[in-house]
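<context>
A single protein, sequence plus fold
<entry> Chain with its tokenised backbone below
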Amino acid sequence: MLMVNRQLINPESIVVVGASNNLTKPGGKLFYNIRTGTFKGELYGLNPKEDSIQELPCYHKVDEMPDTDLAILAIPAAFCLDIVRNLASSCKTRAFIIVSAGFSEENAEGTAIEKELVALCASYDAALIGPNCIGVLTPAYQGIFTLPIPKLDPQGCDFISGSGATAVFIMESGLQKGLRFNHVFSVGNSAQLGVEDVLQYFDETYKEGDSSRVKILYFETIKDPDKLLKHATSLIRKGCDIAAIKAGTSDAGSRAASSHTGAMASSDMAVDALFRKAGIVRCYGREDLTTVASVMLYPRMKGRNLAIITHAGGPAVMLTDSLAHGNMDGPQLKGAKVEELLTFLFPGSSASNPIDLLATGNAEQMDICLNYCETIFPEIDGIVVIFGTPGLAPVFDVYEVLHRKMLT
């Protein structure tokens, strides 16, 4: 039974257990991020030592509180079970996010508490994210205690991560590339809901034109390969693209993952085969993942022929090799139109593909080359640009040209 529910995705009320006026503590930062974000419902703090939190109501005991959809816990692991039980029974709370550590990733006692939490949530049909995570971002609320907090965009990617810190690093990398996000789920130990379960939710609620068509995933363990295969293939049939990292496939990496989120080892060959069968693009690092996701957010190319425009010959040669290894092509350009294009470029430039502007190439020439590839050369399906600074002239005017083209 799928446990992702309305209270988790779009709650009308939220309580932060362990809320604080100290923004250097997780409970304080969680409360602040929700209070200053997009959340429009009722927000409460629960802390026996405070009368108000950041100028909003704070309760000392659960039995003083009104009914509340979602609880986010930032308290020691030993206290979580009683709080969840009391909130579920007294306040009809049906969604819980536990950011606290000290559970199955730490010791047997923590494992036992985690199992009791899962059983308790199941008895109330309540959703549980975590423990040992940074929280959740949805269009309705910003339930995390970390930064960055991207401005969410319905046309951005949905991101599910088995690690909170890794989620932060991946968002940082993506934002530098202009990658947009729609939902972000950090599932931590995945005691109840793991990456596969949230992917199932995205599959079963997918609406063409409304839902994000790009999903990016970070796994430290794949708990249910069959579920992953089923819902990944279903989403891809609906027109989605999925990219993922699976960490902890070496012996040393498996030990590191186990101490981090209690993850279990997976054979690298098995992961590779599973991703290939599902149609998931496998990535091996955050820069790889966020670059692939950024490309996926653009309209799909209808063919396999790419033009390379550059002012650096060596990188263009390496990219041409990579395209060939990836079943793509950089077709040679010939004919009168190629000779015509050369008249706009400096002597010594090449226009046969790669199109090499030389280190002295400028924004006007870049614009002309892009226009030729877009409208004059029918064999070109897409364009890749390699352009940095050779130290001879400012390059920001070139970037303005590229930015304008990417928006049209």
The mean pLDDT is 94. The radius of gyration is 25 Å. The longest helix spans residues 108-123. The longest strand covers residues 181-186.
